[in-house]
């Protein structure tokens, strides 16, 4: 019996399911979690989503997003849901350090655990692993997971919107990390009635004045171009966070603007937060920012999209990035 058949057997009995995704959830994390929740509920399972931290308000339009439990805001409820679960899904992450202290609770649970993820190097922390590093997104994998269960017909418009959201956001509107199956899934969702124009409008055309002013500030005052390395770097200081009252989701997508510059192949967005400096890295072609993140900033991700962090001064991290960059890019 292969893994999908074993999962089908497990799901043949009503389960108390907890779905978990990573800290600072993006469109793929929230989209895949909600899609799986809505599908499992159709099959009679009790399903709760727990996220380590809040997700951007941009995704509040997705069905059942308001039912999500945030560990940072409600430790007790998170603990109770995990204690009462019979099955836990790990979506869009593959190591416990991506869910911080929530991982400590889950490690103590001896229930069946299933991972569905498209990132490199999954750790052996679950009973069943569905890993596909060629997939555009975990949302694409959720579609295939449901289809492999023989339940594709149960993917309705609401589930489809959740899946399409993750595919849009993780591929930059189908500009990178795509494969033939990505477009096959997108076409199928369109045929099921998903309005991709509406989704794009909800996701990308709902910026606040504050977010737009922040973007202008970053591009005008916090951008450095290294033409000899075909690289652009933008950063935010602690004071910027105070001056612009930056909240969760306000910096989403800023790094992608750097790759819009002609000739730029690598973009780095480096942010000074109260106790840590975080990096978001993007690249074009064969340049692996995943390797830069993994080798020097305790991070990872995909070849062309990765992130990392370090406990150091902002200036030191910017300089470290500049020092190591030439070893990873051929100009």
Pick out its properties:
331 residues; inorganic pyrophosphatase (n-terminal core); Diaminopimelate Epimerase, Chain A, domain 1; 2 domains; 6-stranded parallel beta sheet; 6-stranded mixed beta sheet
Structure, described:
The strands form 2 sheets. The chain has a 6-stranded parallel sheet, with helices on both faces. A 6-stranded mixed sheet has the order 7-8-9-10-12-11. The protein has helices at residues 3-10, 27-42, 75-83, 101-107, 138-148, 157-170, 180-191, 196-204, 209-221, 238-243, 254-258, 289-296, 314-324; strands at 16-20, 46-51, 69-70, 87-91, 112-117, 128-131, 223-226, 231-236, 266-272, 277-283, 300-301, 305-310. It has 2 domains: 3-204, inorganic pyrophosphatase (n-terminal core) (Alpha-Beta Complex), CATH 3.90.1640; 209-327, Diaminopimelate Epimerase, Chain A, domain 1 (Roll). The mean pLDDT is 96. It contains 13 helices and 12 strands. The longest helix is centred in the first third of the chain and has 16 residues, at 27-42. It is an alpha/beta fold and 331 residues long. α2 (27-42) packs parallel to α5, α5 runs antiparallel to α6 (157-170) and α6 packs antiparallel against α7 (180-191). The protein starts with a helix and ends in a 7-residue tail after the last helix. Helix content is 39%, strand content 18%.
